[in-house]
Structures are given as C-alpha cells and as structure tokens.
C-alpha cells in the first residue's frame, strides 16, 4: 500500500508538469518508471490504474517522451503472459484490469507507430496475431465494476484491434481474420451495456477506410445473422439465445446508423434493415 501511495504521489506530480519538465524527469529514470507503471498497470484501484497510470502512459507515448527502445520494450511486455494474457479465461477476477489496460497501451503504441514507424513489419505481424488470440480467448465481458471502475476488456480490445487494422502494415487480406475477432466478441456470454458495440464498429470503420469490399461486409453481416438463427433453432428462446440476440441486434443497429452517418455502405445497410425487420417479427410477432 505504501508503494502504491508513493506511486500515486509521483504521478499526480507528473500531471502538474509541462511537457518539457516531464520529459526531463522521465529521462532521469525511464527504465525504472516503465517497470513501475507496468507492474501496477492492472491495479484494482481505479484512481491509480485509470486516472494515473494509463493517462501517464498515453501522455508519454503521444508526446514522444519515451525512447524507441522503451516503446518496443513496453509493447513486448504488454503482450506477454503476465499482461495481455494474465488469467485469460477468467470471468470475474481482477486480472481483467491488467489485460484490459495492457490493451489500451498497445493501442496507443500502434497509433504512434502509424506516423513514426519504429516497428518492423515482422513485429507488427506478431502483434496482430496476439491481438486475435486475445480477443478470441477473453471471457470477462464486464464493463464498469462497482468500486473498481472500468474493466471494459471488450471495448479496450476493440480499440487495440482498430488501431492494428488502421496501421499501414495491416494487410487487407487479413480483413476476414479481423472480422472473425469481432464475431467472437459478439457471441460471448454476457450482455454488453457500456457501448461495446460502438467500439467494435471502429474496427469496421478502419476496414472500410482500407477499401474493404462492401460486398464482403454484407456477406459477413448475413453470416452473423445466420449464426444467430442456428442458435435459435437449437435452443429456442433460451437465456443464452437472448444474450446473443441482444448483442448482435444492438451491434447491427449501430452499424446501420454508423454507415448511414458516413454515407457509405448502401448495400450493407439495406441488407441489415431487412434482417432486423425479420428478427423483430420472429421474436415479437410470431
């Protein structure tokens, strides 16, 4: 507890510094600071984890106060078994905070690398592969947790994947792999109530920005509706069906309006509209 208190005091002091002051402070003990932030990145203390550690990481990365060596080292650590994959598969443990906030730091580094390009294509490929593994394996779908703050693993994981898809090294032929990760998130247990659908659709936005085919996106949305139909045929109006139905219908509604706002995907929105109407009739008027 004493160590946490001292770390909080230091990070609050950092917040009061201008960029030049902070850069000088960090340069005098960069390795030690990174080790301390990474050690406590998943603290169940929301003030330390969210307001201080993550915000410090984001500022240091965004304002280019870290060396390339440190950025690569932080990225490697965040992707390891003690961070992005710590306790993977657990549904109610505090390990979710480590996984989730490691995701956000990975996303921040990928965003910075879009312009600075300090990661090789080989490193990026390995990062992308681990992001897929993580999103498929993550089972803790909680958003906000009373007294501990945001876990939001699916939303933060979506941010991480969106940053990867938007990266210059992302190969368009991997689009179906990215969409499979979105699909896996839609069919997990639990009902999303904290805008996870909005965050997942940033991945779709990033794909379309890379000129992903509207026809292929329509095929994918139809596939999702068909998978939901298969669950319905097997289970009827079960609780598990309603959980997945809620997540998928909300996602499709959000996608429908997001595409409309951006004046893109007329073919996709038409198909979504037809299928939403069919599901409404199936569930509420049959």
Automatic annotation (TrEMBL):
Origin superkingdom: Bacteria
Annotated Pfam families: DUF2785
The name this protein goes by in its record: DUF2785 domain-containing protein
């Amino acid at each position: 507890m004493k160590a946490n208190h001292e770390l909080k005091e230091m990070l609050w002091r950092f917040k009061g510094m201008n960029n030049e002051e902070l850069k000088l402070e960090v340069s005098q003990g960069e390795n030690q600071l990174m080790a301390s932030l990474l050690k406590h990145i998943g603290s169940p203390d929301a003030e330390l984890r969210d307001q201080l550690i993550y915000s410090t990481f984001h500022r240091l990365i965004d304002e280019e106060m870290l060396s390339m060596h440190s950025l690569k080292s932080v990225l490697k650590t965040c992707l390891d078994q003690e961070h992005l994959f710590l306790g993977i598969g657990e549904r109610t443990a505090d390990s979710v905070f480590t996984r989730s906030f490691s995701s956000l730091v990975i996303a921040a580094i990928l965003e910075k690398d879009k312009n600075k390009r300090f990661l090789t294509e080989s490193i990026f490929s390995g990062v992308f592969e681990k992001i897929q593994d993580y999103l498929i394996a993550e089972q803790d779908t909680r958003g906000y947790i009373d007294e501990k703050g945001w876990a939001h693993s699916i939303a933060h994981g979506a941010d991480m994947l969106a940053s990867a898809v938007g990266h210059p090294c992302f190969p368009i032929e991997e689009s179906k792999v990215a969409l499979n990760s979105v699909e896996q998130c839609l069919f997990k247990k639990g009902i999303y109530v904290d805008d996870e659908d909005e965050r997942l659709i940033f991945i779709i936005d990033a794909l379309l920005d890379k000129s992903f085919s509207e026809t292929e996106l329509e095929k994918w949305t139809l596939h999702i509706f068909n998978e939901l139909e298969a669950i319905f045929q097997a289970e009827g109006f079960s609780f598990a069906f309603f959980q997945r139905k809620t997540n998928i219908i909300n996602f499709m509604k959000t996608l429908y309006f997001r595409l409309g706002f951006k004046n893109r995907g007329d073919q996709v929105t038409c198909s979504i509209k037809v299928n939403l109407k069919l599901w409404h009739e199936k569930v509420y008027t049959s």
